[in-house]
Amino acid sequence: MAYRVQETAQVHETAKVGDGTSVWELAQIREHAELGTDCVIGRGAYIGTGVRIGDNVKIQNYALVYEPARLADGVFVGPAAVFTNDHNPRAVAADGKKKSAADWDAVGVDVAEGASIGARAVCVAPVRIGRWAMVAAGAVVTKDVPDFALVMGVPARRAGWVGRSGEKLREAGEGLWEDPATGDRYREGDTGLTEAAE
Predict the structure, then answer these.
(1) Are residues 115 and 189 in the same domain?
(2) 174 and 88 part of one domain
(3) CA-based angle 86:192:196, to the nearest 5?
(4) Do 121 and 180 reside in the same domain of the chain?
(5) How far apart are CA 177 and CA 126, in angstroms?
(6) Taking the complete model, does pTM exceed 0.85, yes or no?
(7) Using CA atoms, how far apart are residues 110 and 133, in angstroms rounded to an integer?
(8) Cβ count within 10 A of residue 100
(9) Does 112 share its domain with 84?
(10) In which domain, by residue range, is 76 found?
(11) What gap in Å lies between CA 4 and CA 18, rounded to an integer?
(12) Neighbours of 149 (CB within 10 A)
């Protein structure tokens, strides 16, 4: 099995693209980027140098994933979402001279398994998006997002919990939360939400 690249997309010869992955029109995948199997890279999306992407990841049209971002398996990145990589961006140094790549240290966005980033959301590095978390459309994430958290707003704040299905969880009493779509239960503790034991 091989991967599919549309004619107008640019995939650098040093990039690694997994079997079954589709790279659509005008997408750009830079040097030494690594994409897993069965990914979808949408029209006009940008994948920076050395970015690591797991299996079954969907990156929608015009999303910008700058290095050194890391996306685990099953991550969804909505249209026009942006992952930054410079905490103090400047085109020039304090003395007015043009900055080069050697003049700053890239910081990345780390997205854990199954998390979803909504359309036009901005994740300001360095930041971690937890397992199965959901970032609402248009949110600006400036702090780490816990596992299973739903965050929204500018700056993004937790507005609830979500399950693996993506549905907002409902309270089930005694610190438990339930996924209305699957019936799965989660336990809330001091450090956040964890999947409840059977």
Answers:
(1) no
(2) no
(3) 135
(4) no
(5) 30
(6) yes
(7) 12
(8) 8
(9) yes
(10) 4-162
(11) 10
(12) 24
Q: Based on the domain organization, do 132 and 153 belong to the same domain?
A: yes
Provide the residue-wise pLDDT of the chain in tens; the chain has 198 residues: 699 999 999 999 999 999 999 999 999 999 999 999 999 999 999 999 999 999 999 999 999 999 999 999 999 999 999 999 998 888 998 899 998 878 888 999 999 999 999 999 999 999 999 999 999 999 999 999 999 999 999 999 999 999 999 999 999 998 999 999 999 999 998 888 999 875
| CATH classification of the domain holding 114 | 2.160.10.10
Whether 35 and 65 map to the same domain: the answer is yes
Give the strand order in the sheet containing 16-17: 16-17, 34-35, 52-53, 70-71, 109-111, 127-129
- The Cβ of residue 41 has, within 10 Å, a number of other Cβ atoms equal to 32
Which residue matches tokens 């398994």? 113
Q: Compute the distance between CA of residue 93 and CA of residue 15 in angstroms, rounded to an integer.
A: 31
Rounded CA-CA distance 140/157 in Å is: 9
- Which of 24, 18, 105 lies closest to 61 in space, CA to CA? 24
Neighbours of 197 (CB within 10 A): 6
Neighbours of 142 (CB within 10 A): 13
Distance CA 106, CA 175 (A): 39
Same domain, residue pair 181 and 158: no
How would you class 23 by CB atoms within 10 Å of its CB: exposed for 0-12, middle for 13-18, buried for 19 or more? buried
Query: CA–CA separation, 35 vs 128, rounded Å?
Result: 19
Report the domain count for the chain: 2
